[in-house]
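pipeline: protein-struct stage 2 | run 1193 | RagB/SusD family nutrient uptake outer membrane protein
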Amino acid sequence: MKLQYKTPLYVMICGAMLSVTACKKDLLNVQATDRISTTAIESDTAVYEAFVTNRYIGERLQDKEGDGSNPGFGRGFEYSMWSSLTDESIYNNDDATWLIQRGQLAPENLGGAGVLWGRSYRSIRECNYALSILPKMPFSAGHKMRLEGELKFIRAFRYQDIIRNYGRAVLMGDKVVNLTDNLQDPALFKRASIKESIDYVVAQLDDAASKLPLDNDGSWILGRATKGAALALKSRLTLYAASPLYAAGTWADAVTAAQAVISLNKYGIYTGGYRNLFLTNITNETIFERLYTKNANHTHLEIANGPNGYGGWAGNTPLQNLVDDYEMDNGKVITDPTSGYDPTHPYDHRDPRFAATVLYNGAPYRERSIEAFTPGGKDSKDGADNWNTTKTGYYLKKYMNDAYPLQNPWGNAGFQPWIYFRYAEILLNFAEAANEAYGPDVVPSGSSLSARTAINLIRSRPSVEMPNLAGGLSQSQMRDAIRYERRVELAFEEHRFYDVRRWKIADVTENKPAGGVIITKNANGTFTYTPKVALDGRKFLPQHYWLPIPRAEIQASGGQLQQNPGY
């Protein structure tokens, strides 16, 4: 029997990260070696600084449960990515993602999504603790200011995870909750409105941005928050606030927030190619990213997602739903009779971001081409390790680094950066908000861009070079164009899950069957492509616009914490 804990996770950190208890008997009064003492943090500037930087990954020394509490912000490079909870992909070897795809989400049945509430509040408490002792730490005034901005950014990011997954947040302010506090205090569990939640976080980000440096430099480790990171998070949150699901802000405010990042004149579209962007540490497009080193590598993507014919495990396999949405390279959808789409050669002449994102039958990969066909295809069920054959007919290409070994990768792979914010997202945020507030071709005050010209900057990226959007589009047509750009430009970057919800179209997109393809090699060497359902029972209900708060958290609050409707 698994015992239920009776203390909220944002309080339990007292016992998990900080050593705050003492024993009466000298025999038992020893310093724990698996945690950091408050004395060390509060008396040693190096330990304090390490404590702050470790808040980026939510790391605690005592994390042996494998509960997903250690990956950093969001999910990032895990075996099953957030994309496999959407119409982008399915996880080939189910690890509870299928139950969410099938609408079986419940407060006690959350899979990898179940850690977000507790993990976020644990980190918020840690940030509050670090902020509470910062005034007495012997740093220079300028360094204290940076650390304060950094901690407020991290705390805001954790609140973002609460807001975008659960809606209304419990706003803790600067309070450091301890086990000695009255844990039945209703204020500990009162959820603010969505508007109150977002307004609070936006104010914190404004404060953080005023304190953070514009650049990482010799005194500010690469990968730590900057002014641009704080403003980028504000841009995302204000865009969400104006969206139909939230209805807690204005599109004009979202335009202003995105423009603040653009006006830094620090970021641009990476000219080294769309595919290389996700393999390269530190580019002019990257605003905030997590960097990995030899001793801190992440999931080894190549074997986790590679084709079975290479010994890979298939992992996050793209859906036909996504494949069909890629335009032809002339900018026309494949259902347009004048597009040039050929169903016997379905992957020819597509938006170049398609081949950079999806491995398809015939795609060049390492020493040969992908063989997802039957009979006889090496990357089909007729190949080796056929239990790892893709269920959709596709494999993931984005993020895969062919220079890394696919076999025995441990210690020699898993060093791609995970990008949290990049300039293309900011342009997309600006375009969406500007179109909704002013229309496709109006240049807002203080900007040099319209919604249309912002999108064209992305479409004209070197290695993509899709046709520019023409002038004269209606607001509705531009809305569709912007949603297309977000769909393909940001694929597998943890945006689709939140986009279809904030637009309130998830009841359409997430109720479509999870599509795949059966590829048959004919006697004359041609291929026949037959649609199939790759995962049956896909289902989305109205309550799924928000995640349920884990049952254990509701119980720990004594029932004071209000569950989301429908659960």
